[in-house]
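Entry 14. Structure prediction run on the chain below.
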Amino acid sequence: MATIDLAVEPVGSAYVALLDAALMFCTELRFITFDRWQMTERAADLVERLKPWLTAEEIVTTWPGTQLGPGWTARLWRVHLVPEVVRVLLDVTSGFEDWGGDLPEDPHLVRADGTPFLGSSSSEEDVWLELHDSEEATIRAVPEIQELLTS
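Output returned:
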């Protein structure tokens, strides 16, 4: 498996292409909110719009790319990834840079076996892919995604 840091955060057509590609390999979208702070209206609206596909929410201290310090917890939202979910995301966001701030943080796309396909850290402005060889060949063939890849 190869970990590929993206050279820039996907926006516009690259963001759309990445979400569309994820539908081939992933079964779940996951993202983070913190109960310590009240959820913004925009974040609450996104969660409400995704509720038909919400499969679970749980309190966590770790997720791909993050390990919280002692005394900190986060709420992990798990959403079944289907084309309708992608449409909601594209209605609310135009790229990974939109996540965090007044939207939930650290969206990640996960395979059926629970392993990450895409991870992100909103606060670090970092997005990466964790690809099997067969996935990497498919992803590299998508022109909008090709320009994001560091190697």
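Strands lie at 2-5, 28-33, 54-60, 62-63, 66-67, 74-80, 105-110, 116-121, 126-131.
Filed with the rest of this week's runs.
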